[in-house]
Amino acid sequence: MPVAPAAPAASEPLRLDPLLDELAAGNARAVAEKMPQVIGRLLPVLRLLGPGQRAQLIQFLQRLG
User: Fold this and answer.
1) CA 49 to each of CA 54, 62, 65: distance values in angstroms, whole numbers, following the listed order
2) How far from 28 is each of 3, 24, 32, 37, 62, CA to CA, in Å?
3) Is 65 helix (H, G, I), strand (E, B) or coil?
4) CB-side exposure of 55: number of CA atoms within 13 Å?
5) SS in 3 state form for 2-52?
6) Does the global pTM surpass 0.85?
7) What's the CA angle centered on 22, arms 18 and 57, to 5 degrees?
8) What CA–CA distance (Å, rounded) separates 51 from 53?
9) pLDDT tens for residues 8-42?
10) Among 8, 11, 17, 33, which is most buried by a count of CB atoms within 10 Å?
């Protein structure tokens, strides 16, 4: 009977401060490539927002675009 491959080891959580340092240094491309992981890292904080705060965040983000 074949053996299932081992699950990959849990990776280190993405650290946001080094990415912000990269962004400040003008290395936006490196940060842009990691945006899905950045958003995933922020999800626990975003889940704390109430409906009104979410609406404000959406409005803020729409003004950026």
Assistant:
1) 6, 17, 22
2) 43, 8, 6, 15, 20
3) coil
4) 3
5) CCCCCCCCCCCCCCHHHHHHHHHCCCHHHHHCCHHHHHHHHHHHHCCCCHH
6) no
7) 80
8) 5
9) 555 788 999 999 999 999 999 989 999 999 999 99
10) 33
**Residue found under tokens 């400040």:** 24
Q: Where are the domains of the chain?
A: 16-64
Torsion over CA of 53, 54, 57 and 63, rounded to 10 degrees? -120
pLDDT value of residue 15: 93
Residues with Cβ < 8 Å from 54, sequence gap 6 or more? 46
